[in-house]
Each structure stands twice: as C-alpha cells, then as structure tokens.
Amino acid sequence: MWRGCSNNTVKTLRNEAVLFAALASLSAVSAQAESFTAGTVMQKMEERERYAFVAGVVEGLAFARYKADGDSPAGMSCIYTWFYHEDGAVETVYAAFRKFPDNTPAGVVSALIRRRCDG
Q1: What is the DSSP letter of 32?
Q2: CA angle centred on 51, ends 73 and 11, rounded to 5°
Q3: How far apart are CA 16 and CA 56, in angstroms?
Q4: Phi, psi torsion values for 31, nearest 5 degrees
Q5: For residue 94, which of 62, 63, 34, 49 has the smallest C-alpha distance?
Q6: pTM for the complete prediction?
Q7: Domain boundaries, the chain
Q8: Residues 7-25: pLDDT tens digits?
C-alpha cells in the first residue's frame, strides 16, 4: 500500500492521520450544537489548530486521490506541492473558508484542489 514511500514518509503520514482524527473528534465535540462548516473553522479554532485541521483535510484528500488514481502518485503529488510548497496556499484556503463559510471544510479544500490540480 505504501510502495515508493520511505519509512519516514509513512511514519509522517500515519502521525498526521492520527493527529487529524484527534483534532476532528475534538472539533466535533465542541461543535456538536452547530454545523461544522468552514466558517466554524475560521471562527472557533486558533491558528495552530486551524492549520493542523486543514493539513489533515489535505492529507485525507491527497490519499483519496492516490487511491482513486489507482495508486498513481501524480495527483497526490500535485496536492502536496500546492499545499506544502506553494506560497500563499494556506491563505488561499483561509480566504475560501471566509468566502464560503457555510460549506464544509473538506468541500472547500476539495474545490481548490480540483481547480489547481485538475484544471
């Protein structure tokens, strides 16, 4: 399943997945009485929590893309390059969250990824 990845990459991905799951469950508890939206992320999370949450969403979408592409890393690599290496990507996500506060965080990030990696 992790063909072509170094042991450090696999460990990092697993650690980030665990972090994402923990953050998602904590966030879900704090947002039980309201819809969990992009607006909620911007209004209720501190910067450090927000970045970790969004990075978890990106990791999940990147892995889903990898599997959807038949274990081809090209689409996943585009996602990683965009989010982790291109200047302004994180602020682009936050701006989109502010513009579409009623949408789900994953839906907003997915739309940005499609525009960047499928366009």
Answers
A1: T
A2: 45
A3: 6
A4: -110, 20
A5: 49
A6: 0.71
A7: 7-117
A8: 566 556 555 655 565 555 5
